[in-house]
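REVIEWER CHECKLIST
Item 1: Sequence provided? yes
Item 2: Single chain? yes
Item 3: Sequence as submitted:
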Amino acid sequence: MERFVSVGVFIDGGYYAKVNRALKSIESSIIRVRSLFDYISDRLAYEEQVNPSDCQITEAHYFRGRFRVKDAYDKHLLYNERRFEDTLIENDVIFHYKHLREVERDGRTEVIEKGIDVWFALEAYELATFRKFDYVVLITGDADHEMLVRKLKALKIKTVLLTWDLANVDSTSPLLKEEAGHHWELSQILNDSPALKRDLLLKLRDNTAEPELGDNF
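Item 4: Structure as written out by the authors:
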């Protein structure tokens, strides 16, 4: 009897944005969401020894703080936000947003993001419980998610930590790597596979009339 492998993907939007900014700076590229999802499902199908058509990402969720519409308009972010959301929609990603706040401290403006990590963890745990994923893939490097991984393992759900070790991106928490059952470090994987790198990264054009995906995504 053939087996179906169900995968849930949960993306820490702040971490994902830092990776994309670093890739823009280093490679003049950004991540192709569709190619990233194909890589996840194909690799898990290979590891589980099932047909790729029987290993599917059944849900994908993206969590991020963002500015209210007037602030986003004043900061010229609306186009980039909508363009990136189009990419998420095209790949059936459900996005979860909370408003950002700006506060003045010591003459500097700080952006405050409250509650996103907690929401990320609660949603991932709740959905894993009800959907009974075979795998949960966490795209994050935040040490705060160590307990989430531990709880998912208690549910006997295999957990993959997917990270990208690049300059200007916070290093992955050693405790998080240790806790996760599987850790895929994509910077090393792509260095060893130029073909995969070409497939996974979208090369940005240097001279184009159309604005490129901005620094926030």
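Item 5: Key structural point noted by reviewer: Residues 100 and 213 are 20 Å apart (CA to CA).
Item 6: Recommendation: ____
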